[in-house]
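Hi everyone,

Forwarding the result from last night's run.
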Amino acid sequence: MCEKIKMNIHIQPADMKYIDSCVDILQNSDLGKAYFSDYEKAADMLTYAVGQKNVYVALDENEKCLGFIYYMTNGVFGSYPYLHIVAVKEEYRSCGIGKQLIKYFE
């Protein structure tokens, strides 16, 4: 399954239609379970971030969201980009999607 996914995913800026998928992916991660267990809090944060154009999604050939990154352009000391969240759908972890998202961010 992973080889097919690597060949067919594309990364693009997120829009509002991916908020629910991103919240689900986040809440099923260790980070999400620790800090974003409240759906509305997570959805509000990601809605704001998408509005700021600071979220990119990894999509398969059917436009299914497999993961996302959320970064802040002026995060560190108000001047340097900061990668805030990298999250990948549980069943697609260890397939290189997170690595591709980070590479895209760089």
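The CA atoms of residues 5 and 60 lie 7 Å apart.

Cheers,
N.
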